[in-house]
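Exercise 7.
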Amino acid sequence: MSFKTTAYFAAIKSRPDRALIQDEWILHVINHPVREEIQSDGRIRRWAKIAAADNRYLRVVLLADAETVHNVFFDRRFKEN
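Solution. The predicted structure, written as tokens, is:
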């Protein structure tokens, strides 16, 4: 892995629905988001479309340092506008 992660990320990444998410997809979202939002707790949400995953949008949640990955999942409710 070429990015920092939290212990929470390590735990959820082992779930069957999250295990298929590739590190290169996570890096793509971090570096090329189509949207970014700052949560009230300082965490950063970033989204990008992943062509290799049926054009679904992957959400990556970073800690406030903008480097440490805390959570990742395909966001079914995200709409790019």
